[in-house]
Amino acid sequence: MKKLTMVASMVLVSLVAKSNAHAFDGWRNGAECQPATAADAADLVYSQYGVQNMSTTTARNVICPIPTVLEGDVTFGFRAYDRNNLFVGGNINNISCNIVSLTLDGAIDTSANLATSGGGPGAGAQEAELTIFEMPAHWMWQFQCSIPKVNTPGHFSHLTFYWLQNAF
């Protein structure tokens, strides 16, 4: 019986290891994102609903972890509540996210942008998604997002989830 259990465990571990080596498919809570700077930290609030910006004066930035090596065709996206409807330079302040690959010295090598559209007080959830084909292999990836300021009391913009789907 012990041999059968040991063999079954080894097969299960082998299957899990092989599946993780070839794909990553996961939703991550926005609460996993960290402030980009110390100034950003002062206005960010974390909960089961993700990360929200409480500032009434400025957008705040977060950096979200990507727990895997990405290469090949990668789809990334996010779900957010964009409650800001102020126009700045002819554009509405939207929640904007970049997926960024970094060189070993921390310089940006590759970047792609996604953003919400419109929004305003009481606006529902929005999702943005993008697929990058034949993405080069990198060890260092970041998901960076800018969350607009509060422009209507009680209506906070927040990043609830972000996701990655990678099959190579």
Fold and architecture overview:
By secondary structure, the chain is mainly beta. It has one domain: Sandwich (Jelly Rolls), CATH 2.60.120.260. It has 2 helices and 13 strands. The chain has helices at 2-22, 38-41; strands spanning 23-29, 34-35, 44-47, 50-53, 60-65, 70-81, 87-88, 91-92, 96-102, 108-115, 125-138, 141-147, 158-167. The strands form 3 sheets. Strands 1, 3, 4, 6, 11 and 13 form a 6-stranded antiparallel beta sheet that branches. It has a 5-stranded antiparallel beta sheet with strand order 2-5-12-9-10.
Supply Rg: 19 Å
* Strand/helix succession: HEEHEEEEEEEEEEE
DSSP helix count?
2
The main pleated sheet reads as: 6 strands, antiparallel
The tally of strands reads 13
The secondary-structure class comes to mainly beta
Q: Give the overall silhouette.
A: globular
Number of domain units: 1
Q: Could you say what the CATH topology is called? A: Jelly Rolls
Write down the CATH class.
Mainly Beta
Instruction: Give the amount of beta strand, in percent.
Output: over 45%
Q: What is the residue-averaged pLDDT?
A: 77
Key features of this structure:
Jelly Rolls, 51% strand, 2 helices, 13 strands, disordered N terminus, mainly beta, 5-stranded antiparallel sheet, 168 residues, 6-stranded antiparallel sheet
Topology summary:
Blueprint: H1 2-22, E1 23-29, E2 34-35, H2 38-41, E3 44-47, E4 50-53, E5 60-65, E6 70-81, E7 87-88, E8 91-92, E9 96-102, E10 108-115, E11 125-138, E12 141-147, E13 158-167
Antiparallel strand pairs: 1-13, 2-5, 3-4, 4-13, 5-12, 6-11, 6-13, 7-8, 9-10, 9-12
